Amino acid sequence: MKFMIAVLLLLALPLAWADPVAALVRPAAVEVSDKAALRDGASTFVGYCMGCHGARFQRYQTVADDLGIPYEQMLQTLAPAGAAIADHMQTRLQPADAKAWFGAEVPDLTLVARVRGTDWLHAYLLGFHADPQRPWGVNNVVYPNVGMPNVLESLQGRQVLDCPEPTGQPCTQLRVIPGTGSLDAQQFDAKVRNLVAFLAYSADPAKAQSRQIGMYVLLYLALLIILAYLLKREYWKDVR
């Protein structure tokens, strides 16, 4: 009996030590084959992220070709003034200014979806909340003590913690103050998913194309197996 109790206690230890923040990272179901979503994500990235973060391994021309955006439209709407279509998507923020404002150089986001994963990025972008004790007035339930402002607050609205009673665990319940954002919860979630989809595309631009090629390869292999089986029957017919 004592042995069974000890086993049950050991099995319960992971639950006791479970990270409540990890529960916030759920499948984001991001699809990189939806070009309309990727175009919206690219627009959000340029309009809200690229003031500080760049995508220096990505070119405007590549994005335009892959997402079906005319070059002229790309330069007018998604590139800074004076940029050439073959330029890399680099931020205009200087490293010295970044260190002065944020205390460190801001990371490049070309490969962030590969490093962090799309599920984490989705949860992170939804996890900002007001915190007057932080330098930028915000914090993040997924990445505590975050060092950047909530650049999407005008879309989402002012989000606050919503834990009425202390439980000894970090508060992860969030609530958006009504009327403080230009999008409702569903629209904002779609906007964030599109942004994450664009970051996923930037991290692996050939992923959608490789899926399409993979389907043709599988069809070819299936046909090859059928032909090999028919050839085997033809050979063994004479042997038998």
From TrEMBL:
One Pfam family matching this protein: Cytochrom_C1
InterPro entries for the chain: Cyt_c-like_dom_sf, Cyt_c1
Predominant location: membrane
Cofactor(s) listed: heme c
Subcellular localization, as worded in the UniProt entry: Membrane
Annotated positions binding heme c: C49, C52, H53
GO MF annotation terms: electron transfer activity; heme binding; metal ion binding
Cofactor binding note from Swiss-Prot or TrEMBL: Binds 1 heme c group covalently per subunit.
Segment forming the signal sequence: 1-18
Any one annotated GO CC term: membrane
Regions crossing the membrane: 213-231
Keywords: Heme, Iron, Membrane, Metal-binding, Signal, Transmembrane, Transmembrane helix
Family annotation (PANTHER family): CYTOCHROME C1, CYTOCHROME C1, HEME PROTEIN, MITOCHONDRIAL
Protein name (record): Cytochrome c1
Species of provenance: Pseudomonas baltica
Lineage, broadest ranks: Bacteria, Pseudomonadati, Pseudomonadota, Gammaproteobacteria, Pseudomonadales
